């Protein structure tokens, strides 16, 4: 080992994350697919369609991940496949996910299973989706069934991916289906998501044959006021931070529905429903006071700030601060997503290194971080952005869907295999 190498703890998980709708292809029975067919919603005019055809090519993808030095993989189960109608299980689809998990295991990839990653079965959406008071019970039943069927194949179960994005994008900003712009509905959805998480946690714990680790996946941002000297900006940033970063954390820690969604009332069975915390981190958010009804506004990154194709500012220090914030819960933290959409693979390499440096710094400062799962293995369907984004370590040939690892994939392979970031590599990138 050379001086200045960043060595990660033994048993650290290195891998990639993906979600069913973004990679599998032909997820025809969920609300995203239906919304895409309406036309006009996806920026580049595309539809998810065959996506990466991962549904049929998972063996190839997991073999590639193994060749690329990875020892873990995060995937999601497509609820609309396994429960296509309310209360009816499609055993062939359940068996498909058995094969998926067995293939991961066979390729030396420890599975992290997400139960809900943005997509709802059509029947669930028709009942009101996340705004329905029945949502927690319905998704808990599905979660229990999956844990009973597949629980012995995965040690990590993650309930809901980014509940703050679900509530915010679907019900407040109205940029994801069902495209509502209604603060009251957003609050209702947020409450249901929190209650659902608790119910899902217990359903998995009670149904899985072995005692798996179960937790939530939060999308956290490092929030700062546009003008630190402005009382208004500081208050707006605080409000945004409470809604975006704090709501779920406080909810699960204390078992309450805290403001601004609730009044601090108890949610029975919710308290302490996490064995792990999953953190998705991409960027920081700079906030100033905005106009009603939301009242806060994100300030776009300045012209000279480094940005991704998504327009997100590259701000690695934010990852350190988010990790540090999670330390007080005393629960292992797994970085479940981090990545950049860029056509410049050297920028991706630098992004990865700079973020790994922050993960390493957080570990040095006592945060129990146990994974770095990159978003994503292969370029895929980026929701309302369509296919005009490039998050993959591996490029996908349009038409043939052939996988072509980028230089960043090999850089990540060497880091994963050696469990360290060499000082030379940091120097090579001027870090
Ligand atoms: O693609 C998404 C993913 O589905 C959830 N987290 C953020 C990623 C990049 O936008």
How would you describe this structure to a colleague?
It is a single chain. The chain is an alpha/beta fold. It has one domain: Glycosidases (TIM Barrel), CATH 3.20.20. 40% of the residues lie in helices and 18% in strands. It contains 14 helices and 15 strands. The strands form four sheets. It has an eight-stranded parallel beta barrel, surrounded by six helices. The longest helix is centred in the middle third of the chain and has 25 residues. 5-hydroxymethyl-3,4-dihydroxypiperidine (IFM) binds next to loops.
Summarize the structure.
The protein is an alpha/beta fold and 431 residues long. It is built from 14 helices and 15 strands. A hairpin with a 7-residue loop joins strand 7 and strand 8.
Task: Sketch the topology as an H/E string, one letter per element.
Answer: EEHHHEHHEHHEHHEHEEEEHEHEEEHEH
Quick one: CATH class?
Alpha Beta
- Cofactors and ligands: 5-hydroxymethyl-3,4-dihydroxypiperidine
Proportion of strand residues:
15-25%
Question: How much helical structure, as a percent, in the residues?
Answer: 40-55%
User: Per the principal axes of the C-alpha atoms, what is the gross shape?
Assistant: globular
CATH topology, which one?
A: TIM Barrel
CATH architecture: Alpha-Beta Barrel
Helix-strand category = alpha/beta
User: Number of helical runs?
Assistant: 14
Poorly predicted sequence stretches spanning 5 or more consecutive residues: none
- Number of separate structural domains: 1
Radius of gyration using CA atoms only? 20 Å
Distance between the termini: 18 Å
Relevant CATH superfamily: Glycosidases
Strand arrangement, major sheet: 2-3-4-5-6-9-11-12
The description of the largest β-sheet is: 8 strands, parallel, barrel
- Residue-averaged pLDDT: 97
Number of beta strands? 15
């Amino acid at each position: 080992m050379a001086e200045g190498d960043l060595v990660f703890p033994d048993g650290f998980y290195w891998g990639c994350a993906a979600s069913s709708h973004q990679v599998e292809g032909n997820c025809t029975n969920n609300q995203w697919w239906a919304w895409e067919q309406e036309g006009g919603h996806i920026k580049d005019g595309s539809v998810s369609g065959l996506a990466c055809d991962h549904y049929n090519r998972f063996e190839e993808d997991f073999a590639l991940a193994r060749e690329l030095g990875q020892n873990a993989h995060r995937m999601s189960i497509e609820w609309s496949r396994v429960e296509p109608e309310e209360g009816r299980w499609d055993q062939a689809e359940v068996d498909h996910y058995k094969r998926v998990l067995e293939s991961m295991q066979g390729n030396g990839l420890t599975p992290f299973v997400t139960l809900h990653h943005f997509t709802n079965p059509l029947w669930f959406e028709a009942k009101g989706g996340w705004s329905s008071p029945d949502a927690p019970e319905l998704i808990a039943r599905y979660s229990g069934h999956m844990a009973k069927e597949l629980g012995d194949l995965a040690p990590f179960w993650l309930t809901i991916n980014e509940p703050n994005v679900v509530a915010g994008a679907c019900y407040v900003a109205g940029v994801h289906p069902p495209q509502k712009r209604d603060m009251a509905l957003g609050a209702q959805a947020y409450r249901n998501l929190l209650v659902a998480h608790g119910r899902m946690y217990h359903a998995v714990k009670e149904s899985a044959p072995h005692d798996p680790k179960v937790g939530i996946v939060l999308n956290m941002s490092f929030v700062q006021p546009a003008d630190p000297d402005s009382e208004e900006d500081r208050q707006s940033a605080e409000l945004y931070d409470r809604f975006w970063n704090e709501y779920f954390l406080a909810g699960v820690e204390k078992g309450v529905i805290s403001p601004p969604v609730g009044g601090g009332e108890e949610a029975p069975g919710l308290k302490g429903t996490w064995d792990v915390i999953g953190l998705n981190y991409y960027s920081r958010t700079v906030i100033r006071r905005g106009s009603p009804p939301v009242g806060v506004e994100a300030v776009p990154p300045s012209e000279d700030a480094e940005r991704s194709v998504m327009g997100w500012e590259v701000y690695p220090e934010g990852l350190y601060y988010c990790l540090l914030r999670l330390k007080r819960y005393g629960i292992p933290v797994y970085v479940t997503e981090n990545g950049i959409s860029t056509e410049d693979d050297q920028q991706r390499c630098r992004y990865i290194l700079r973020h790994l440096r922050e993960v390493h710094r957080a570990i040095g400062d006592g945060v129990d971080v146990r994974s770095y799962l990159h978003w994503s293995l292969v370029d895929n369907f980026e929701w309302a952005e369509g296919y005009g984004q490039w998050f993959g370590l591996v490029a996908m040939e349009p038409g043939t869907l052939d996988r072509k690892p980028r230089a960043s994939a090999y850089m990540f392979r060497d880091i994963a295999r050696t469990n360290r970031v060499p000082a030379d590599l940091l120097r090579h990138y001027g870090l």
